[in-house]
Recover the amino acids of this structure.
């Protein structure tokens, strides 16, 4: 299985794009926070509990509770991912390691976030693995804030989005240094439709490469049969 995580700051179209991939043969999708799309019974019901807990935290501006709720989304995500391990390509609308590391400072500001982050990273890498590749949807923090119609997220102010964007850029550079491919797509000047088409083309190329890798081990035996005949 080849796993792809689509990452980016808020309002870059991650969930919408991943939803649009469901019709591609050989591709399965998984969502970190959009729990209604879960297929697993356990993932769907635990996800609903976490979703309403996060909404309660946001409505009442309970920063630490909201941050904990976002982290708890990893529980239904893990259950859902376990049901999709046999697909050809698995596309996630966020990453279970990178996203929590980028948002931890928004919900645990100051020295607390700095102390927690390395511990959190170690724990996350115990339960999850980094994907085979990333698609990074880039955007300016100002445009991200303008696209936010609900204005309900506690990290939705431009100042906080700038901080998240900076951390995400740093994390993507580290990912590339580890040798994991990162495809960057600038969403500032492109429509959601154009970005979706570009992502579709990229995922289809991964499907083609993955299917070829599966077929290649069989080729020597076919040649041997022909030579023997």
């Amino acid at each position: 299985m080849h796993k792809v995580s689509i990452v980016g700051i808020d309002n870059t179209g991650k969930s919408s794009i991943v939803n649009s991939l469901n019709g591609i043969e050989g591709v399965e999708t998984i969502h970190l926070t959009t729990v209604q799309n879960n297929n697993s019974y356990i993932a769907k019901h635990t996800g609903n509990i976490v979703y309403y807990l996060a909404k309660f935290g946001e409505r009442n501006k309970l920063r630490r509770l909201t941050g904990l709720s976002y982290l708890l989304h990893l529980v239904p995500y893990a259950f859902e991912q376990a049901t999709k391990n046999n697909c050809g390509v698995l596309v996630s609308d966020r990453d279970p390691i990178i996203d929590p590391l980028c948002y931890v400072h928004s919900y645990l500001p100051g020295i607390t976030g700095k102390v927690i982050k390395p511990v959190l990273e170690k724990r996350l890498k115990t339960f999850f693995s980094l994907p085979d590749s990333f698609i990074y949807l880039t955007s300016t923090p100002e445009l991200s804030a303008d696209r936010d119609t609900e204005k309900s997220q506690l990290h939705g102010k431009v100042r906080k989005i700038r901080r998240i964007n900076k951390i995400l850029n740093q994390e993507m550079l580290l990912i590339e240094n580890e040798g994991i491919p990162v495809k960057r797509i600038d969403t500032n000047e492109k429509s959601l439709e154009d970005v979706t088409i570009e992502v579709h083309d990229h995922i289809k190329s991964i499907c083609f490469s993955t299917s070829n890798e599966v077929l290649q081990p069989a080729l020597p035996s076919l040649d041997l049969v022909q030579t023997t005949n």
User: Anything to note?
Assistant: Confidence is low (pLDDT under 50) at residues 217-229. Residues 192-215 form the longest helix (24 residues).
